[in-house]
Amino acid sequence: MTSLLSSSSSLSYSTTSSSSAPREEDGRLDQLRRPKRGPLPSWSRTFSMTLGVLRGTLEKNKDSVRRARLLTDKAATPIPLRVKLSKVYLPRRKDVVPEGMSESHAEGVVKAEWVDWEPVQDEKVAAERVILYVHGGAYFICSRKTHRGITYRLAKYTKARLLAIDYRLAPEATFPVPLNDILSAYLFLIDPPPHTGSPKYRPEQVIFMGDSAGGALALSTILWLRDHASHLPMPGAAALISPWLDLTHSMPSWRLNNAFDYLPNGSNDPKYISPTRSHYYVADNTQLHNPLVSPLFAKEDPRRPMPPILIHAGDAEKLRDEIITFAMESFPTSPLQLELYEDQPHVFHMFASLESVAKVALKRMGSWCLGVTDNYVRHGPTAPTVPHSVVRILNRKGHPVYVVGDPMSIVDEARDILVSRGQWLGKGRSGKPAMSRAESGFVIDPSYADFDDSVRNELDKLAIGGGQVNAKA
Known about the structure:
Elements: E1 3-5, H1 45-60, H2 65-72, E2 84-91, E3 109-116, E4 130-134, H3 148-158, E5 161-166, H4 177-190, E6 206-211, H5 213-228, E7 237-241, H6 253-256, E8 309-314, H7 320-330, E9 336-341, H8 356-379, E10 389-393, E11 401-403, H9 408-420, E12 424-425, E13 432-433, H10 453-464
Parallel strand pairs: 4-5, 4-6, 6-7, 7-8, 8-9, 9-10
Antiparallel strand pairs: 1-11, 2-3, 3-5, 10-11, 12-13
Helix pairs in contact: 1-10, 3-8, 4-5
């Protein structure tokens, strides 16, 4: 049974039986009643068209790394003029080289930038809290610049300095090379080289953040610290947006939500993809089940607990079920909180200038991070008690919040629906979804789409417009 939440804090929840509260059935995700294709009921016309153009663009360029990068290499999301961006170069570290990577690949520097909403009085003095942000982009596209629409808002709502990095991209840099870049950035914060003059942060002041592939990389870095570097401290917390946790695509939502999400079914550049290599990030498919590649297959270790973790996901995105399964079965007793957002696609936070629920999600993430780090300030380096929980936030007036009593029932229902449609290969949980390359719910080809100015303006805000302008905060 679901119940309405009245607490605005993400650290502890309470329920209410107010007669004015939304009905309990409104808080449940009824996948059987969803249309087989988008748009979903809570989407605005502009949002639906924007998703369609984005999906169409990704579909048309998924068979060429070069073309996909042409769209993103020079893109920069517009940000408010008050945001200060400061370039910084982080030396790579040879003392944190993951297995399978040579020390020669740990030379040079990692390009990064500080993103500051509030003026920094003295850059040589550590702030109260700092975010290490790892951008998404399926491991092979995007940069710190394309994600500024998310990073500046997180810096604002978390009241933190934010360090966004450009890790090395696939297919030129495959697993585990990018992990070294993130580890090097983390050590730059907690153990900066003396010649840099950078302030030294306590580990509990550092929050790992990332979206999509970047969320997975942030999580994999924490897992690597847990399993391979017991002499190094964990960060204070992690807040992840739609992390990509299963590169085997074994979960039902990868197929069931294909008609609602803008993510294509895969990347198919024949220069790199083959029957034995389905992803740019891995050298071959034998690596797909490695927990540092697909964290879904990681497990709890009571000897070295994880830091507090917050995960956001859209309940209409393709990665939904792997995220739920990770929370409920891979790490069922860890200090992990999952928030599912009604009718939202992958990394919907990027649409904060268009959709109120996206801004609500970013504010909730900021509030959660403030709560965790303030707890460290009051009680020292011991991690705060964070109850394991899953909630669903509705995309309606007031954005009411419900506890999800049985999250795995969402996954099981999705699998049952695919079985009934003949779209599930194998039996039960041992099977996987059958994909259809022709299936797409609302693709709009940008070469012929007749979309209006509101859609065009929203695409400009995502990255295509470029430059630093007086964007809406």
